[in-house]
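Researcher: Excuse me, tokens okay?
***
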Amino acid sequence: QCLLADGTSRITCKNQQIHQFIGISTFSEYTVVPEDNVTKIHPDAPLDKVCLLGCGVSTGYGAAVNTGKVESGSTCAVFGLGAVGLAAVMGCKVSGAARIIAVDLNPDKSEMAKIFGATEFVNPKDHSKPIQEVLRELTNGGVDFSIECVGNVEVM
């Protein structure tokens, strides 16, 4: 269950305890977190810069550049095009990947993925066969690097 370190959740709705995703609920409008999970920023700080204090960009970019060590000329697939996935696409591009196949269920993310460096977009819902088979056919054998940015065990 997704609780705080002390085993509780300080959020309720209609007298029901609300479990916090990874203990922090980053997708909620309001949340309660331990004080060491909070960073105060100046009210005038530019949000387009301080957003880098979160883990999305460094996690995705680092997965491609540092952990995966994507190679120049390679073919990559990035699953999930949220902040982490888009940053992974960017990391693949900076690393010199020749093909970057962005994979997501939401077709609205296709154009943004291409802005970040994706060369192709594939929506698994558009195919009757498993996505790994689609990618194998699309690449004549498979990708060199696959980066999962959904956080879903089935995708992994």
